[in-house]
Amino acid sequence: MDAVGEIKSRLSIEDVISEYVQLKRSGRNFKGLSPFTNEKSPSFMVSPEKQIWHDFSSGKGGDVFSFVQEVEGIDFKGALELLARKAGLNLEEYQPKQSGRLDKSSNERLYAAVEQAVKFYQVQLTKHTPSLKYLREKRAFEKQTLLDFRFGYSPEDGKALLTYLTKKGFSTEELRKAGLVSSRGRDVYDMFRGRIMIPLLDPQGRPVGFTARQLRDDKNSPKYINTPSTPLYDKGRQVFGLSQAKEAIRKSGFVVVVEGNLDVVASHQAGIKQVVASAGTALTNHHLKSLQRFTGDVRLSFDDDRAGQEAAERAIPLAQSIGVELSIITLPSGKDPDELIKQYPKAWEESVKNSQYMVDWLIERIAESLDLQSAQGKRQFINHILEIVRQLKEPVEQEHYVRKLAERTNTSFETIQAKLHEKSGIQRRLKRVKAATEEPALREQRVREQHLLAMSMRSEDIGKLLAKLPLDVFSPEAQETASYLQAHPGISPNGSEYAKMLTLLFEEQYQLTSEQELAYQAQRLLSRLVTDYAKRKKTALADELAEADDQKQTTILQAVKHLDDLVVQFSKVES
Q1: Of 24, 306, 495, 521, which has the fewest CB atoms closer than 10 Å, so is most exposed?
Q2: In sequence order, which residues have a C-beta less than 8 Å from that of residue 115 and are 6 or more positions away?
Q3: Euclidean distance between CA atoms 381 and 403, whole angstroms
Q4: Closest Cα to residue 215, out of 153, 262, 161, 160?
Q5: Is 243 left (phi over 0), alpha (psi -120 to 50) or beta?
Q6: End-to-end CA distance of the chain
């Protein structure tokens, strides 16, 4: 896969665009106000399914790259670099070598280096008694568990892994790219020293990095550190334990997400294997999409405190955007998963089974923090919950919680319902759009020709009208599609972003329009396009006429006559 394809696989178009445009779910698509015009009714559409966007008011559209180019006012190279940074992609990995061919084996070398590091650390663990004592006695992990999750230990001398892998034939640069060594000046040393090593695996079970835990408490050093971002490892995508849990997830129909990697290990050892962790980072859209491949039932075991509540609220719009159902696992007071699993494994199993739907859980937690007998407490409670309810895409679900709020606060349903549809009090700060302005005439032509071509893709009769038009009636960006439709009226061209954009346009604007109405609208568009085309051509010909000789003047006048005939031909709009 090339860099463009890899970026598109890592970034969802709706996530990128939502940094600039406030998007709301509209069926299978998203809708918002155009960032390019001053429209008051939203006509800017994003299709996650087609991975395209289209702005009905300006006629602009395309893929995620064209959007970034438009809003940032940069060229394709600039958009590629910006999106690569956002996706955590190293573009150097996709640069051609001097031979002109891409080095397809570079990532395989990195996989091999990390695999060798895992084996090296495993051997070191067998020789390091304090690490084994901590894992076997304090954490109560069985020998088989340590083998299954491939635990290891990194020696303290700072050069042990570097020396070992260099002898295996790996270069310092390869080890740096794999996140296994680091540099200080000219000196190169191991990334991890004196820590218990827990390999991070991709969904296929290949090691891509490590979580490293302190063995001795040191206030000047973090308890856990992870591999830095590499071509193989991205913490925003890494789901710890997924390769070991995926079969159990499929069989049970749900997945449990905990906060700590060692909680995952403990749960697997206790026989509850449909458990994963988000690798020490907040839950992301990519985490949920990885889990959605196996189940739509995601159960979160977060700390029962303010931070856990905020994490749960942040997860709701992510889940709603991709159709995942979230619930919360509540543990006995003062317990974390690891502690509960060790002392009362059956209690952990029961807690996992008895999860509570996310919104219900949040309502209870927020209600506990407020005085619902006071007017101020009711107002704060209603406002807070409605911010959550607004993010639910199902109207039936929204109405359910409006009624629940009304009952809980002894307020009328109509009052809560009206408040639901007020403008949200919490508005996300959007990035500034830097796109340049353009001539209204160019924008109007683009919009008209897109509507006409969209109709021609679905109607053979309308498509046949295009055959009578000069190709330069259309703007350069539309000419390839117009040429195809002149040869294949009524048949959609496959593959191009422009064709996908026209399909989205037709689905949103004309899906339920009758053939008779389509024909009428097409005739109007044709008439206007041809009239404007003739006007542009005649202006250019008039400039030539003033300086032409007699023979050239005759040719120019014939061209003007041809343009007039063309206008007459397409000016007869059927009623």
Answers
A1: 495
A2: 206, 207
A3: 14
A4: 153
A5: alpha
A6: 52
Closest to 278 (Cα-Cα) out of 238, 321, 242: 238
Query: In tens digits, what is the pLDDT along the chain, a chain of 575 residues?
Result: 578 888 888 888 988 998 888 888 888 889 999 888 878 888 899 998 888 999 988 888 999 999 998 888 788 888 898 898 888 777 777 765 443 333 445 788 999 999 999 999 999 999 999 999 999 999 999 999 999 999 999 999 889 999 999 999 999 999 999 999 998 778 899 999 999 999 999 888 899 999 999 988 777 788 889 998 888 888 777 899 999 999 999 899 999 999 889 999 999 999 999 999 986 567 887 788 888 888 889 999 877 667 777 778 888 888 887 788 999 998 886 677 888 888 888 999 999 999 999 999 999 989 988 999 999 999 999 999 998 998 888 889 999 999 999 999 999 999 999 988 875 544 455 666 665 556 677 888 888 888 988 888 878 888 888 877 888 888 888 888 888 888 888 887 766 778 888 888 888 888 888 888 888 888 888 888 888 888 888 888 887 777 777 778 888 888 888 888 878 877 754 43
572: nearest Cα among 535, 530, 539: 530
How far is residue 51's CA from residue 169's CA, in Å, rounded to a whole number?
A: 42
Q: What's the pTM?
A: 0.59
Q: Cβ–Cβ contacts within 10 Å for residue 191, how many?
A: 23
What is the distance between the alpha carbons of residues 203 and 246, in angstroms, rounded to a whole number? 8
Query: Which residue in the block uniquely carries the two structure tokens 């001795």?
Result: 216
Tell me if residue 187 falls in helix, strand or coil.
Answer: strand
Tell me how crowded residue 568 is: count the other CB atoms within 10 A of its CB: 10
**List of long-range contacts for 407-415, beta carbons under 8 Å, 24+ apart:** 408/363, 408/367, 408/372, 408/381, 409/372, 409/378, 409/381, 409/382, 411/378, 411/382
Quote the CA–CA distance of 281 and 296 in Å, as a whole number. 21
Burial annotation 88-127 (CB, 10 A radius, 16+ → b, else e): bbbeebbeeeeeeeeeeebeeebbbbbebbbebbbebbee
Per DSSP, the three-state class of 304 is coil
Q: Which residues contact 518 (CB under 8 A, 6 or more apart)?
A: 455, 458, 459, 462, 510
